[in-house]
Amino acid sequence: MDFNDFCREFEVATICTMGNDFGGMPDNENAVFGTSNHKAVKLIYGNWKYGLNAGGTMANFEKFATNPQYMLLCHRPKNSSDAHKVYQECTVVVSLMQETKDAGIVDVLDIGFAMFKV
């Protein structure tokens, strides 16, 4: 289909992956750490609860600091021959999602995240 025809026929396109093969990396359990085919996937399920940990935006940093927080470390494992080397680059994919109207949610909320180097 021509791109212009596609744009005329559709208003929304959702593109997703059914696996952890983002970045073109093969789905290979024997991937070698530190090579182009290495990957690590971590899923964290959580939620914001009003009055407990729904701190809002950075406009009020004191409340913002009550939002859920996670630390991400990129390092080489002990069995790597280059274990003494520090990564100069680390590619990270972050996806923040919420349940939609399909799941019975009436209002879709504005959500976001911030990343800080510590």
Short description:
It comes from Notodromas monacha. With 118 residues, this protein is largely without helices or strands. 9% of the residues lie in helices and 0% in strands.
Walk me through what this model shows.
InterPro entries: Calpain_cysteine_protease (IPR022684), Calpain_domain_III (IPR022682), Calpain_III_sf (IPR036213). One of its GO terms (biological process) is proteolysis. Pfam families: Calpain_III. This protein has 118 residues and is low in regular secondary structure. It has one domain (1-118). Helices cover 9% and strands 0% of the residues. It is built from two helices and no strands. It has helices at 3-9, 61-64. The longest helix is centred in the first third of the chain and has 7 residues, at 3-9. It starts with a helix and ends in a 54-residue tail after the last helix. The relative contact order is 0.10. Residues 24-34 have low confidence and may be disordered.
What distance separates the N and C termini? 47 Å
Q: Residue ranges: pLDDT <50 for 5 or more in a row?
A: 24-34
Number of helices in the DSSP assignment: 2
Q: Kindly estimate the percentage of residues that lie in beta strands according to DSSP.
A: under 5%
What would you report as the Rg, rounded to the nearest angstrom? 20 Å
Element-level helix/strand string: HH
Structural class: little secondary structure
From the spread of the alpha carbons, the general shape counts as flat
How much is the average pLDDT? 71
Percent helix: under 10%
How many domains would you count in the coordinates? 1
User: Can you summarize the main beta sheet?
Assistant: none
What is the number of strand segments? 0
